[in-house]
Amino acid sequence: xxGNYNQTEFVREYNAACGKLFREERVRRGVSLRxxxxxxxxxxxxxxxxxxxxxxxxxxxxxLFQRMGILPDYFEMVASGDEMERWRLREDxxxxxxxxxxxxxxxxxxxxxxxxxxxxxxxxxxCKVEFFLLWKDREAKGGTGELLAGEELxxxxxxxxxxxxxxxxxxxxxxxxxxxxxxxxxxxxGAGQFACGRMEEAWEVQSFVWNYPEKRxxxxxxxxxxxxxxxxxxxxxxxxxxDSRKAFEFAREALELLRxxxxxxxxxxxxxxMGRISGExxxxxxxxxxxxxxxxxxxxxxxxHMSGYPENRVWQGISVENTREAGITLKMLRKxxxxxxxxxxxxxxxxxxxxxxxxxxxxxxHKPSYTNYQRLVHRYxxxxxxxxPMLETDSIEVLELRQEISSQIGFCQWDKVEAxxxxxxxxxxxxxxxxxxxxLFFEAIILLERKGELEKSLELLQKALHVxxxxxxxxxxxxxxxxxxxxxxxxxxxxxxREMGKLAxxxxxxxxxxxxxxxxxxxxxxxxxxxxxxxxxxxxYLGELRLYEEAIDVxxxxxxxxxxxxxxxxxDRAYYRIAWNTYxxxxxxAQQDKRLQKQWRGGF
Length: 604
Hints:
The protein is an all-alpha fold and 604 residues long. Among the domains are: 239-309, no CATH class; 399-603, Serine Threonine Protein Phosphatase 5, Tetratricopeptide repeat, CATH 1.25.40. It has 29 helices and 4 strands. Helix 13 packs parallel to helix 15 and helix 26 packs antiparallel against helix 27. The model is unreliable at 1-13 and 384-393 (pLDDT under 50).
């Protein structure tokens, strides 16, 4: 690993880094502690989270960032086994609601029994899904007792809102910071009012939520988390009033927002609702747009069916593709360092934890203190926090610039890439290892993609990787906990070895990265960010070996993993790989061609 580290990078505890970034953004935006914390936690509790005195909890922390219009997926985070297990159980509920009512109700009861002590946000989530289930019951009864059900729905929605949102949220004279999941609860109030026939009030609520992202100047990547839900309510209200034009405008704006952000949250309900719009009196262009939505709906129904994915589901307010579970992380790093349990529990300052405590931490049964977590991580040779590489010197502006450069690389806009890198250098301190890693990576990709210089690019990529990864000679590389940037860099190294015809080296890198990522998804069943890059490279590697059917299986598995996340920007490329590899496999013999022809056509 490179020397000359700025030691401040290593003494920042994980929660202090999160708190520091949050405080800087809060102060910059002129948001008081009381405004930021309202309904979630006390002013004092947030002050302690900001200072690092108490832990930065995943669920609350994400919602705090979202309330300021910031997506936490810019950073890599660590959560306890308990936090991740709760997320997994909530996700199981999401996949059952609204269609599998009986199973969903049982899972909700199990959740309440298992976790009698719940955060306000957890209770809000449970209240929302219970609302959806009651709405489903109401639909199934075909209007029997409709008014009574409407009043019950409204009461449930108001209870969900009150979990985190103070009274007076609709009053324009008062300002509340609200995350998408909280706005979704407010939308349910509008739906309850609609069920009671209180149309004017329902429109007022829908308008409040629909306009909220623009009033708060949220970027589209944030707005997409709430606008489709607001569009669904707006369409329902407009169609009740037989205003097809208004329903269409809600639908089109929400659909284009989903398309522009490669997101499929509530996509199918939106498309199905569009099917209720007649299009009578519309212009030819608008009529064709509606018919195109019908085709789009049928395609996604087919994709979900082929992957065994539910057509309708609800979504949580947070995602965990950027989050690592502390216990698995520590176990993997200990194995990478080659340390048995009884040798891993102490450092130069003495005992960190007992062997039994470490076993429980690694299994997810216990949560390590932040101090002990840092001591153990250092003991295993993993220095620094678990953030995105730029965090030590970042601002949200810097993180957004980094994202912009990555997107421009994807579109081969090299002049813009180089101009963006120059701006980046002016905003960061290149003395920080992870900043240096990022810049080396960008330079390597320019050499590779723009100039085709494999050897020089490989040299730079290896140099970039070992800014944060120790030399692993004599160690089992598969146990290294690859972070987002490390996955991307290592995948590119794998691909260059493939292009150079060094397939033995490519195989070693492939096995190490794949094993590491599989281990890390243990408690969530979600692959981490960087997985899509690895899948494309793995496909190229298997194609080089003419293992086309294995490549098909890998891409099918990738599709299944992509659908578990809100954003599916790489889904089309996975289907292209399936189609191409099926074509390659089918060309082997007439028998194979007949067997794979349907799959080949389906992929295309």
